[in-house]
Specification:
There is one protein chain. The chain is built from 14 helices and 4 strands. By secondary structure, it is α+β, with helices and mostly antiparallel strands. It has 2 domains: 103 residues, no CATH class; 168 residues, Lysozyme. Strand 1 and strand 2 form a beta hairpin. Helix 6 runs antiparallel to helix 7, helix 10 packs across helix 11 and helix 11 crosses helix 12. It is elongated, with a radius of gyration of 28 Å. The two termini are 44 Å apart.
């Protein structure tokens, strides 16, 4: 019964604090929460046999009351700022009264090698959503670019840069030599990559992105050689062992690279505004 009354008391105090959240800052709510938890049974009891553990998990912070072998969660906060404030505030208490535990990630969750672990999977999904939002709102045909880039494992910033350089994002563009559509593909290349109507944006971007993927693998991921081959042909790049000494091709590579870096920088800025903190990598969390 006493345990139930304790939990109800803490919950009421938390609820009152949350109801006033519009004018009480998160740190004050955290202080009220922690104070309510520590007041259980009186401070003198804490000096005797009761100890409190403030445990930061992945999605919340919990206050655990430990009396001998018995443990009971007496408070839990899921709100990010308030929960983090609670965890920080708990550090001012003597360790004989309050200790802190940080249980965010373990190897089983993060994974021992690149590409393994739930966290890496979730991080990939989050980053993919951020990229999708950015391209859908900041680049013409951005949703299509993002979808086809994911399909063929190509950097969407590269696809956007090539498209901008080739057609200025005009789906009806046609060059003097007969290249067509957004990615300015020759009909023969388009058919090779599975497109029948290069003025259809979906077919054109699919074929152009697939062609970039092919060239990237052809030149072992070398970005400048891939871009040069898109402009001058893979045979020319192979013959010269790199970007050929053609003024047009060198200018083309420079323009695509400039736009590629611009799109990447804009994506990083967008990512920073979304997350409000530097991007997190799995490697930074594994010790």
């Amino acid at each position: 019964m006493r345990s139930n009354r304790v939990s109800e008391s803490v919950c009421r105090q938390i609820a009152r604090a949350r109801s006033r959240k519009s004018w009480i800052h998160g740190r004050r709510i955290a202080t009220v929460t922690l104070g309510a938890a520590l007041s259980i049974g009186g401070v003198s009891e804490a000096f005797q046999s009761v100890h409190f553990i403030v445990r930061k998990d992945l999605d919340s912070v919990r206050v655990v009351r430990q009396d001998g072998l018995h443990k009971e969660v007496v408070a839990r906060l899921g709100d990010g700022f308030t929960a983090n404030s609670l965890f920080k505030i708990s550090g001012v208490f003597p360790q004989r009264l309050v200790s802190r535990e940080l249980r965010l990630f373990d190897k089983g969750w993060v994974g021992d090698r690149a590409g393994e672990g739930l966290f890496r999977t979730e991080l990939t999904i989050v980053n993919d959503h951020i990229r999708g939002d950015f391209f859908a709102n900041a680049v013409p045909f951005g949703g299509l670019i993002h979808a086809k880039s994911a399909k063929y494992d190509v950097d969407p910033a590269l696809v956007a840069a090539v498209m901008e350089t080739e057609s200025r994002f005009r789906s009806n563009a046609r060059s003097q030599v007969g290249a067509q559509g957004l990615m300015q593909l020759m009909p023969r290349t388009g058919r090779w990559m599975g497109a029948r109507n290069l003025y259809d944006p979906e077919q054109n971007v699919d074929a152009g992105t697939r062609y970039l993927s092919y060239l990237s693998h052809r030149f072992d991921g070398d970005l400048k050689n891939t871009i040069a081959a898109y402009n001058a042909g893979e045979g020319v790049v192979q013959r010269y062992g790199g970007v050929p000494p053609y003024r047009e091709t060198r200018s083309y590579v420079a323009r695509v690279m400039s736009r590629y870096l611009k799109h990447q920088a804009n994506l990083r800025e967008f990512n920073a505004t979304v997350t409000a903190e530097p991007p997190v990598t799995a490697e930074a969390l594994v010790r």
